[in-house]
Amino acid sequence: MSRLRWVLEMVETSRYLNKRKVYVTFAGGASIDRGLEAGVEIMQRKYAFIVNPASGAGEGAQIAAMLMRIVKDHPRLGEGEAAVFTVDRLSEDEMISLISESEMLIAVGGDGTVSQLISRMMQSKRTPALGVVPVGTSNDLARALGAPLRADFTDDRVLRATIDRLLSARPILLDILAINGRFFFCNYFSMGFDAIIVSDFAQMRKSRWIRLLPRGRFVNNLIYFLMGVKNAGFRLSPPVVVSIEYSGAEKRLTFDQPVRAVIVTNLPVYAGGTRINPGARLDDGRFEITVVETLFQFIIVILTRFLRFLTLPRGIVQVRAERAEIQLHGPAPCQIDGEAAFDALSADHLLKITRWGSIRIAV
Predict the structure, then answer these.
(1) What is the pLDDT of residues 94-106, one digit of tens each?
(2) Which of 4, 29, 153, 336 could pair with 61 in a Cys bridge, judged by C-beta atoms 3.0 to 4.6 Å apart?
């Protein structure tokens, strides 16, 4: 019955969209094509749902189909007040235009989807409020905001209740940090061991052999573990120099021995719930830098995700900053909010971290 209901929902959704010259393709995931005459009309909506159809082991595609129907009859959204888009069908210019024309964006996906939206928001003349339906692997931002993480968003009642909550929520401020004024993040940015794992994970997922495996968080975590074993010997070449400004004072830390990772965080959690800095705030204009020097330290840091009684190991270096510069000896693998950024940042040996601004985010 559930399969029949899903098919009927898609048929109903297609009829609704055809009236507006908007076409939905469900093969291989829900994606949206817009007729030329409908393009401008769609961009000018009060609410815009931005869905990553690949998130949640494909749940995003099903949620996109459900949202098409919910948008049609939801009492808070109204006729013509909202539209649904998927990230794979929006160009750079279209996404920025959509952001500038909307009053609220609701991202359906993981931290990578949210990061992609925030990066475009920083390029827009206007920044709408942002809501999140967490359907990713890590969901660190949603975790830090206290949003429900284990909800079944493919359940119609749960999805509707989540939309109601986001539309009624009073937004709070979330700091946005910048790297060299060109790259933006709200969760974390790191270089080293964890970043090369993320990079290899992204490459591994493209393998035809991996595609034969069942999709889901368990398989993702297993691949992360295997990539960690593969790169167990990776280190950042010395020297690594971290210079910070905090409360009017300046401090310089030099690491003359190889280090495993340098992690810049805006949230109390990192990498799927690792409690890297429980006292961190999202809106205080400050961020934390953690330097992990040994493999043992890194393992303990990650284990805080699973073992609540663990705390960060002795000897780990943590500092709070309002501005920072990180000087690397050479190119290093980097990640931004869980997405590999090696190609974008490999040429920059001097990384300047600043607070760029803030956005309103619904909880």
Answers:
(1) 888 888 888 999 9
(2) 29
